[in-house]
Design a protein that fits this description.
GO terms for molecular function: G protein-coupled receptor activity. It holds the Pfam family 7tm_1. It is found in: Cell membrane. Its main location: membrane. With 408 residues, the chain is mostly helical. It has two domains: 352 residues, Rhopdopsin 7-helix transmembrane proteins, CATH 1.20.1070; 52 residues. It contains 16 helices and no strands.
Length: 408
Amino acid sequence: MDENSTQEHNVSRHMYTWQNEPDTSAVQIGLMIVVAVIFIFIILNNGLLVTVVLRHKHLQTPPNIIVLNIAIADLFQGIFGIPIREMMTYEYDIARDITLGIVDKRYVCFLRVFLTLLGTGGALFLFVALAIERFVAIVLPFRYDRWMCKSNTIILSLMSWALLLAITIPAFFGWNRWDVNIQCSVQNTLHKLHNSVILNPLIYACLALTAVLYGKIFWVAKSKRAQIVAQIQAVDHAKAVAYKRDFKILKTVVIILGLFIISWIPLLFVRMVLTRTNLDSATMIILTNITFKIVLVKSAINPMIFCEKDRRLRMAVLKLLRLHRQDDHDIFTSERSTNKSCESNATKGTNGLDISELSNRDNTERHGENSGTCSRTLDQTEKKMTHTNITTPAEEKQETSDLNSRHI
């Protein structure tokens, strides 16, 4: 009886192809501990960034709206993607059996594929949106208020999400190669035609478009920056100041984009180069998991870089954590601006100052100066009139005698 049960147990443990892979459980347990630390930082950092941007309307500028969407994508990756992936890793590589009921569920695998693409394609699409926003801000600054208002920026971000859904939805409705005998991954689950015709060309197109936009931005920044600043300065000083601030934002975006590309290079190298070598499957599994953890580190660091480079974001986070100094309150509240609509932004500078309000303020000051001039003139006139009305007693007697002589 015991022998039969043991034989049945052994058969059940080797009924799937992935159960025949080499045992890498010791390494996978160590990687899980590392992922647990990364998970905490992803939730904490991205959660803080999302909270402060949603709570403070003055922080909802066009670049921050796109940054908010990137943080939301990373937050989804942390809340849902990491737990699903690690539970699958536990069943595939540690338990080596279906103990949690995860790897044999078709739609759980599809959800993992969607969340993986969310951290790659979704973030890449949002970086393209951010590149478009920076392109308009640096190359076409006079059209920025009309083209990149709050509503248009939200639409641009929603288009990035819609494109991601359009890529992954076909997999949920049959266009996939899901097999319980094969480990769930983007390459193993999505149809080969889907990868070669849709996903890969779209990623290459996004990278090429981003490179072209930033190439044009850097060319303008190097050759025509002073000329553009002078032109804006002649029209509006506030916009000139905001234009110079846009270059600081550009540096932050370039750092984040560079970090995004660098974090994916090791994983792409493993999947595209090392898979063509004679490395054993155990080494490939370990290298794939390690390089994917590097990608997760990027999701934890992004909010820290954004907050470090943006003073208002940093002050908002410190205020939320009650760590800001009292003398930072003026810095935190001095630049409050809200992009309400495209129409209202037609008369606003990129830093949120209303040009019509500045004109009214100047007119008020001029009116005050004119009022002061008029009051001084009236005072002088009254003094003259008072001076002419004041007469001495001798003059009064002379006037009386003159009147009497005239009467006679």
